[in-house]
Write a structure and sequence with these properties.
Elements lengths: L31 H4 L8 E7 L8 E5 L2 E8 L2 E6 L19 E3 L5 E4 L5 E4 L16 E2 L1 E4 L2 E6 L23 E10 L2 H9 L4 H4 L14 E9 L2 E10 L1 E4 L3 E4 L26 H5 L6 E4 L3 E5 L4 E10 L2 E10 L5 H31 L12 H26 L19
Antiparallel strand pairs: 1-10, 2-3, 3-4, 4-8, 5-6, 6-7, 9-10, 11-19, 12-13, 13-16, 14-15, 16-17, 17-18, 18-19
The chain binds FE2/S2 (inorganic) cluster and fe (ii) ion.
Length: 419
């Protein structure tokens, strides 16, 4: 007799080629750009780490499958391909022997930080004939939101301005922020889809301590509304309990939780707020969850906005960048930091977000049989397909043009912003 005495706890195999035995969609071939972006969409800026982490000692990172060394010199952060052309040793293992350079630890090949050119070869003397003749690739670097951002090019194009890729309200408004950057398992697309996924929050997160006193709905009727380069989830109906024929009643309402609101709401996910922060209100967001390329999620609450940036590392890993922003200045910032460090960091960016990390790590699709709320997923895939097609055409046009200077890849039109 065969006895199965232990559950199968092996790591799921994320093979995309398997027998078509599962119901539904077998692959993502209807979104070819998206399907091909397992290691990320090139041609975008990605946040890598906190600015404070980057010093004169180089550190290694992988973004979109590219190995990168980040280092700071005289206040400026630089990104170089993290592989010495001599014998392939990572430059992040090296250090600085001269200002404005980084030296490989093995034989002292020394690279100029702004250009990546081989500036000196210490162990071949000042007359080394390779000096100035080769080098390593460099990447454009910017610093925003207290983080170092690196542009991963498609070819050799000039990057678009980073501000055209940031959420509009983060450019030109004063704010304070707190956040977490974490390496996480799972493809970046699973993380991004999870962030905008309409169906899961009310079920997966119903046990999160962050929601201890606030009930989550049972089910919603949701629309996807495009605006500028963003898509928004708009809730038309919110149902707090339901009778499932032949199965029973289900609700997340509990005696210790607050009563759910009577009206449908589109800021926050547990109720309608009495007062909304003026900067947030001025954006006139059609819905509380919105998403844009290359995987930027915005969740608007009445008093703050939570952002997630899903940074592709490789096919099976991503970096989670979660940021909570409060549009305030002066003494109010103290109140925000107290709230962030005392609660939000642990409950929201910790346990609540940890539930997402768990699901992203174990998701295994396609195949997939999508259901009605997955309109959020298909709308995102459609958006990315369209935006990336436009980007490729712009970069292609730039590289084939000989007379005119190369234009930057066209950013999508900005949404109307109300003053
Ligand atoms: S491997 Fe880098 S100097 Fe030799
Ligand atoms: Fe979630």
């Amino acid at each position: 007799m065969t006895v199965e005495d232990s559950p199968d706890t092996a790591t799921p195999v994320r093979s995309r080629r398997r027998k078509p035995a599962e119901p539904g969609r077998q692959d993502w071939s209807s979104w070819p750009h998206y399907d091909g972006a397992a290691a990320g969409f090139r041609g975008y800026w990605y946040p890598v780490t906190w600015s404070s982490q980057i010093t004169g000692k180089p550190l290694p990172f992988t973004i979109c499958g590219e190995r990168i060394a980040l280092i700071r010199d005289n206040g400026t952060a630089y990104a170089l391909h993290n592989r010495c052309p001599h014998r392939g040793v990572p430059l992040s293992e090296g250090n600085q022997q001269f200002p404005g350079t980084v030296s490989c630890p093995y034989h002292g090949w020394t690279f100029d930080l702004p250009t990546g050119r081989l500036a000196a070869v210490i162990t071949d003397g000042p007359g080394c004939r390779l000096t100035g003749k080769l080098g390593v690739r460099t990447y454009p670097v910017e610093e925003r939101l207290g983080m170092v951002w690196v542009y991963i090019p498609i070819a050799d194009e000039e990057p678009h301005p980073i501000d055209s890729q940031l959420p509009e309200e983060l450019v030109g408004n004063a704010f304070v922020m707190g956040g977490r950057i974490e390496p996480r398992g799972g493809n970046w697309r699973f993380a991004c889809e999870n962030g905008f996924d309409e169906g899961h929050a009310k079920y997966l997160h119903r046990t999160a301590l962050w929601r201890l006193f606030k009930p989550m709905p049972t089910w919603n009727i949701t629309r996807i509304v495009p605006r500028g380069r963003w898509i928004f989830r708009v809730q038309d109906e919110v149902h707090w309990d339901a009778e499932f024929p032949g199965v029973g009643r289900w609700t997340n309402k509990r005696w210790w939780k607050m009563q759910p609101p009577k009206e449908t709401f589109n800021i926050g996910n547990t109720g309608k707020a009495d007062q909304i922060d003026p900067t947030i209100e001025a954006q006139e967001f059609p819905g509380f969850a919105s998403l844009s390329m290359p995987g930027v999620l915005r969740i608007a609450y009445p008093k703050f906005i939570h952002y997630e940036f899903y940074v592709p590392v490789d096919e099976g890993n991503h970096r989670y960048v979660g940021v909570m922003v409060n549009f305030t200045e002066g003494w109010d910032t103290v109140r925000f930091y107290a709230k962030y460090l005392g609660a939000i960091r642990w409950l929201f960016h910790g346990q609540f977000s940890g539930q997402d990390a768990w699901m992203v790590d174990v998701t295994d699709a396609p195949p997939e049989k999508l259901y009605r709320p997955d309109i959020s997923l298909t709308a995102w895939r459609n958006l990315s397909e369209e935006e990336y097609g436009k980007k490729l055409a712009a970069v292609d046009g730039a590289s084939t043009s000989t007379s005119a200077p190369a234009p930057a890849p066209a950013p999508a039109p900005a949404p109307e912003k109300k003053a």
